[in-house]
Structure formats: C-alpha cells, structure tokens
Specification:
CATH topology of the largest domain in chain B: Rossmann fold
Order of helices and strands of chain B: EHEHEHEHEHHHHH
CATH class of the largest domain in chain B: Alpha Beta
Helix content of chain B: 40-55%
Distance between the termini of chain A: 36 Å
Number of strands of chain A: 0
Number of domains of chain B: 2
Distance between the termini of chain B: 55 Å
Structural class of chain A: mainly alpha
Strand order of the largest sheet of chain B: 2-1-3-4-5
Structural class of chain B: alpha/beta
Shape of chain B: elongated
Number of helices of chain B: 9
Oligomer: heterodimer
Radius of gyration of chain B: 19 Å
Shape of chain A: globular
CATH superfamily of the largest domain in chain B: Response regulator
Radius of gyration of chain A: 21 Å
Order of helices and strands of chain A: HHHHHHHHH
Number of strands of chain B: 5
Largest sheet of chain B: 5 strands, parallel
Chain lengths: ~250, ~190
C-alpha cells in the first residue's frame, strides 16, 4: 500500500517535480515561483500560510488514494479554505475558460458553419453553467460556513444541491474533448485542435480535484461544525473542535 | 460442466488474500497471487489468462487510466475488478468493471465475482455502432426527454431505457445530455 504522501519537510521543488500540475495551484496560495531549495514548511512560513492545509491540497491534487479522516480535519487550520476555493473559481473563470474560448472560437471559425455553431453554443452553455454553479457556492455555501465559524446559529440546514452537479461539470468537459477529437474534421486544424483538447483536459483534471476538495473536505468540515454546533447547544462538554472567536479574516490570494 | 473461473489477485496484504481464498471457495481457481503490479504484467496476463483480475487500485501508479487500459488490452475478455478497503478517487474506480469493497458480506463476495464474469453481449466482438433502438433513444435524450418520458414514447420499460442509455454512453464515450445532443446533431440524427 502506498502511504508516501507529501510532508512539510520535503523541498517544494521536489513536490512540484513529483506533480508538475501543482505549479498551477501555487498562485492560488499566493506562492510565486523562484522558491529555490526551500521546504514546504519554509515557503509556508514565508508567506504566512497554514502548512497543514497547503499540504492537504497538494496531496488531494496528487494522490488518488489520499483522503483526510475526521481527526485530520479537526487538526487542520481551515482559515484559508474559502479564500482558496474562491481563488480557484477565479482561476477557472477568469483565466482557463477565456483561454479555452479563444482556441475554441478559432477552431470553430475554421471547422465550417455547422460544426462551428454547435461547438460555440455548447461551450457558451457550459460557461454559464459553471458561472452559476460557482455563484451559488459563493453566495450560499461559503457564507454558511463563515457563519458557522463565527458561532452564529443557523436555522436553515445546508442545502446540498451544489454537490450534485459537480460530476456534470466534469462530464461535459470530457464530452467536449471526445467530440473535438473524434468528430470534428481536423486535417487543417491539427495544431489548434490539439491545443484546445489539451487545455480542456487540463481544466477537467483540475476541476475533478476541485470537486473533491468541496465534496470530501468542505462538506465534511461543515457537517463536523454543524454536529458540534448541536452538541454545544445541548451543553456537551466533549465538543472538541476549537472555534475561533471571530470570522477568520479573509486573505486575498493570487 | 462450466469451466472454473480463474482469478488473479494482486494485493499486498496476506490477511486480505487469505480471506478472499476462504470466501471464494471451490467455484473459483485462485492463481498464484501477486503483491504488486510487476512491469511485465500484460505478458503475465496473456500467459496466465485469468477471467478476473482482482486488483488493489492503490498499487497502480498515477495516472491509473493508462495502466488499466493496457491491462485490459492484454486480455480483453477479462473482468478487472477493484479490490478496495480505503478511499480511492471515484474517477479511478470508474475505470474498473466493478468494485469489490472488503466490507461486503461474505456471500456477496462470490456473487459479485460471478456477476462480473458474465459476458455483456452474446458472442464475438463488441460493436461500437449504435443499434437502431439506441439511436432512437439517443434522439429523444437529445430532445431533452427524461427516461420516463422516453419509456412512454417508445412503449418500453424505464429499465430498458436506462440500459440503452448506458450502452450509448459506453459506445460513444459521451455522458452528459448536452454532449449527447451535440453527438446527435453532428451525426445528423436531429437537426440543430
């Protein structure tokens, strides 16, 4: 059984060498390139980041069999969870999707009217879906967590609708790549099509891990806080999760 | 008599391997088990010809997809089953024919293994062309009908509709309704 997850004492450069896609994750923490021989611990100290949370993200992004258990969740400093997820949303919406759109418009323009308009309309629908999905998380789920952290009681339980269409967001990207390389005539467009397919696959892989962060980390963390909240109302002295007195100050990332 | 089913187990834990042996009984022949995935795994599969490969997915290197595909190519008729007792990324599990969680009850283990080596289609090479019925279902999916509505429209059971939908996705590699609608348009099954 593999148990070789990343640790705080490893050099950040070794971590990135083991999984180069983490280079795309670093800006979401505000970690610039040029980290030399510093360890993960040293880099985190330099930029004021909780090392356990940063490692958790690195591990989720790298190891298919990595999942923190309840104890790990309790030990981890999650003050950056929401800022991190929001920074990821910005990265997808403001960088990756426009990048993909530029390539797609180019391909669509050369693939003939019929193919072109079908592709463009599929992509536009998709972008809207992503936007509204992220929007509902940022307007409903993240504030809900912040209320819980602030110790404000929440009457209304967390609606779970946002977990349901993650797989659909990932499936549609996978479908788009299939359509592009299987059914779009590509004799004159090989290079552009390849660029486009690679860009979509990269986004799709990133979104899969993002969905895991939300479904396997964010949600269980919220449930844990909710349970604690209930116990506290019943004056249970065993409630172990430390609760900050105030809403953690939002840090700006990336 | 039906020939016995050959099973190759790839799993590092003695406890799990011995447990499987005890649970699977005489109906299955367990080949000499492996503790890891050796580099010559595809060649071994061609030589040993197991019907079921029971594999702990944490033994695969990332990315797992290529390895599962190459193992399947080495022996197309073999069912590759994930043997799981910890968290594994669902995307990785979806590469396997089925998942055997060791928390399953003892009787269910053998049943699951029996189910997964039943051939999906009668005889010969699998076809990736959509059948006439599947095309009909696809068109209705692309028009936005639910499985229930399709069942009513075609006068078939909802179970049959779902089985057609599963086959369509298996054959085309396309999962979402929006993706299937594009497929249908590009293949002139519906007009944009």
């Amino acid at each position: 059984m593999k148990n070789s997850f990343f640790t705080a004492r490893m050099k950040l450069s070794d971590v990135v060498a083991a999984n180069h896609t983490l280079i795309l994750v670093l800006p979401r923490f505000g970690i610039p390139l040029g980290f030399g021989e510093l360890s993960v611990q040293e880099v985190c100290s330099r930029y004021g980041l909780p090392v356990d949370f940063v490692l958790l993200v690195f591990n989720v992004y790298t190891f298919d069999d990595y999942l923190p258990d309840e104890d790990d969740l309790q030990r981890t400093d999650f003050s950056l969870l929401v800022p991190y997820l929001k920074a990821s949303h910005r990265y997808y919406l403001d960088e990756r999707l426009p990048h993909i759109e530029r390539h797609l418009v180019h391909v669509a323009g050369h693939a003939g009217d019929r193919y072109g308009s079908i592709l463009k309309s599929f992509f536009e629908d998709y972008r809207e879906e992503v936007r509204s999905h992220f929007g509902s998380e940022e307007c409903e789920v993240f504030p809900y967590l912040e209320h819980l952290l602030a110790g404000e009681s929440e009457e209304r339980p967390l609606s779970e609708h946002f977990t349901e269409n993650h797989s659909d967001l990932v499936d549609k990207l996978s479908d788009l790549t299939q359509i592009l390389y299987k059914y779009i005539p590509g004799e004159q467009l090989t290079e552009e099509l390849n660029e486009l397919v690679f860009a979509i696959m990269q986004l799709s892989a990133d979104l899969q891990k993002h969905a895991l962060m939300e479904e396997k980390i964010l949600l269980p963390y919220i449930y844990q806080l909710e349970r604690c909240d209930c116990r506290e109302q019943g004056n249970d002295p065993d409630c172990a999760t430390p609760r900050p007195d105030t809403v953690p100050e939002k840090r700006r990332l990336g | 008599m039906k020939p016995l089913t050959q099973v190759l187990v790839v799993e590092p834990s003695d406890i799990i391997r011995e447990g499987l042996k005890a649970l699977l009984g005489d109906e299955f022949v367990l080949q000499a088990p492996l503790r890891e995935v050796p580099v010559d795994m595809p060649q071994r599969l061609m030589r040993q010809q197991p019907d079921i490969l029971l594999l702990n997915p944490t033994l695969l290197n990332t990315p797992a997809r290529m390895q599962v595909v190459s193992l399947q190519q080495a022996r197309p008729s073999m069912a590759i089953v994930a043997l799981v007792y910890q968290y594994v990324d669902p995307q990785v599990l979806s590469l396997f024919k089925t998942v055997l969680d060791i928390r399953e009850s003892g009787s269910r283990v053998a049943q699951l293994m029996r189910e997964c080596c039943q051939p999906e289609q009668e005889g010969g090479e699998e076809s990736y062309e959509l059948s006439e019925r599947e095309s009909e279902v696809l068109v209705l999916v692309a028009r936005g009908l639910s499985s229930k509505e399709i069942a009513d429209e075609l006068n078939i059971s909802i179970h049959t509709v779902n089985s057609h939908r599963k086959n369509i996705t298996h054959k085309t590699g396309i999962k979402s309704v929006a993706g299937l609608a594009v497929y249908a348009m590009l293949h002139n099954l519906v007009t944009g």
